[in-house]
Amino acid sequence: MAELIEIKEVEERVILVAVSVADGEDAETSLDELEELVKTAGGMAVGRVIQNRESIHPGTYLGKGKIQELKELLWELDATGIVCDDELSPAQLRNLEDALETKVMDRTMVILDIFASRATTREGKLQVELAQLKYRAVRLVGLRNSLSRLGGGIGTRGPGESKLEIDRRRIHDRISQLKSELEEVQRHREVSRQQRERSHMLRAAIVGYTNAGKSTLLNRLTNAGILAEDKLFATLDPTTRNLRLPDGQELLLTDTVGFIRKLPHHLIEAFKSTLEEAKYCDIILHVVDCSNPRMDVQMYVVYDTLKELGVQDKEFITLFNKIDRLEGEAVLRDFHSDYQLKVSAKTGQGLDQLMNVLGNILRSRKVYLERTYPYAQAGKLQLIRKYGELLSEEYGDEGIAVKAYVPAEVYASVLPS
Ligand SMILES: Nc1nc2c(ncn2[C@@H]2O[C@H](COP(=O)(O)OP(=O)(O)OP(=O)(O)O)[C@@H](O)[C@H]2O)c(=O)[nH]1
Ligand SMILES: [Mg+2]
Fold it and tell me: Which of 216, 236, 295, 321 has most ligand 1 atoms within 8 Å of CB, for mutation?
């Protein structure tokens, strides 16, 4: 008979630490989000320390007195480590680790850890490991102490089976190996992107803050069957599906990885090709969780990240999602976008209007064509059907009278000759 063995990973009990600078955002709400991240990574927040300072201390993150206070609190709360709300420099990490003699983590490490557990495709795994190693390569001294304290937990998990390297030389070897493997994978992505371009189908990317409801929307519209969960970063790898509108027009819809405040730079770098799905599309569907009290900051973060990725000159549709959770009339506005709609990906409310808007955008990119084709050229009707919309065909003595909408770029090639 099989024996049941209970394996219990030590649950990390951490204190969240932030520096609140004069003109910065509200530190408490930022720590709320950090608490969610820690929970997602399998840890538990047992306390908070916020220091008000002119600016972050360049050498130790916090000031001396606060560090002492934190040390006592660690003991009082029986905590196993701390998580700072900003990315620590190598010196800050080492100094805090020396002063506190506890496991020191930062926001970036926690996000990387979540990404590592979420990556499923080869490209996703390569990207996460690369980001993790780049983060580690410059912080080895402080990290080695911190990570060996518990022998596991946040910051030690790599993507999939692979163990994360902590030897400096081997890290650099592995980084170059990962880079060339990634280039290979990305060449494939480039090829399929070109194939899609040749199909003359318009493409829309679903972007937004993490947990806004992007995957739920794609599932609702296309039965994509993607994992949608009340968790941060449920989706890492982009999924593309065909969406057929009620009027018969079609477009490609891609679900993408969510954005977050202070998204680590290594991740943006490493995930550039994944994030860039939005760069090669025609329409941006920006999903906003309008039931979230931090909606404004979240929208700002999304626009900022899109700018960093060089996403511009698109048709922008803002979807104020989770409208089913709002009571009463809310004033929802977004001056940055071309269209704004209130929807619920969950109940389907407002999605008819979304399809109307998409249909109009698609049609506006097409050219109206009204011609008579000799019977010998009936084959051209196939092309019109494939790339455009055949409104009517009438068979007469002269030939076939056709009314249609076709994409501007194929117009010349489908005309009767
Ligand atoms: N009430 C309500 N809940 C929703 C709606 N849309 C999504 N949700 C819920 O919000 C949570 C997050 O949804 P996802 O679709 O996974 O969000 P996402 O934007 O893909 O998130 P990430 O992939 O983690 O960035 C899930 O629990 C959904 O059920 C909605 O319109 N109304
Ligand atoms: Mg998702």
Answer: 216
| Residue-wise pLDDT tens digits, 321-365 | 999 999 877 788 898 899 999 999 999 999 999 999 999 999 898
User: Does the Cβ of 346 fall within 6 Å of ligand 1?
Assistant: yes
Q: Are strands 239-244 and 250-255 parallel, antiparallel or unpaired?
A: antiparallel
pLDDT digits (tens, 9 = 90+) for 3-35: 555 545 568 999 999 999 876 678 888 899 999
The pLDDT score that the predictor gives to residue 271 is 78
Ligand 1 closest atom vs CA 255? 20
- Ligand 1: which of 36, 114, 211 to mutate, judged by most atoms within 8 Å of the beta carbon? 211
11-198 CATH, one of 3.40.50.11060, 1.10.357.140, 3.20.20.100, 3.90.1150.10: 3.40.50.11060
Distance 255 CA to ligand 2 centre (A): 7
pLDDT in the model for residue 1: 45
Q: Where in the chain is the domain with CATH 3.40.50.11060?
A: 11-198
Atom of ligand 1 nearest to the CA of 211: 21
All CATH 3.40.50.300 domain ranges of the chain, comma separated, are: 200-362
Give the bridge partners for 61, in sequence order. Answer: 57
The residue behind tokens 């929807």 is 343
Q: What is the CATH number of domain 200-362?
A: 3.40.50.300
Phi (first) and psi of residue 372, to 5 degrees? -110, 130
pLDDT in tens, 39-82: 999 999 999 999 999 889 999 999 999 999 999 999 999 999 99
Query: Facing residues of 370 across strands?
Result: 403
Helices (H), 101-167: 107-118, 122-137, 140-150
pTM for this structure? 0.86
Query: For 132-170, how does the pLDDT look when each residue is reduced to its tens digit (9 = 90+)?
Result: 999 988 888 777 777 776 667 788 777 765 566 667 788
The ligand minimizing its distance to the Cα of 230 is 1
- The reply to whether ligand 1 has any atom less than 6 angstroms from the CB of 234 is yes
The candidate with the shortest Cα–Cα distance to 132, out of 114, 153, 150, 145, is: 114
Q: How far apart are CA 384 and CA 382, in angstroms?
A: 5
CB 291 within 8 A of CB 326: yes
Place of tokens 């399998």: 42
The mean-pLDDT minimum among 152-161, 224-233, 260-269 falls in: 152-161
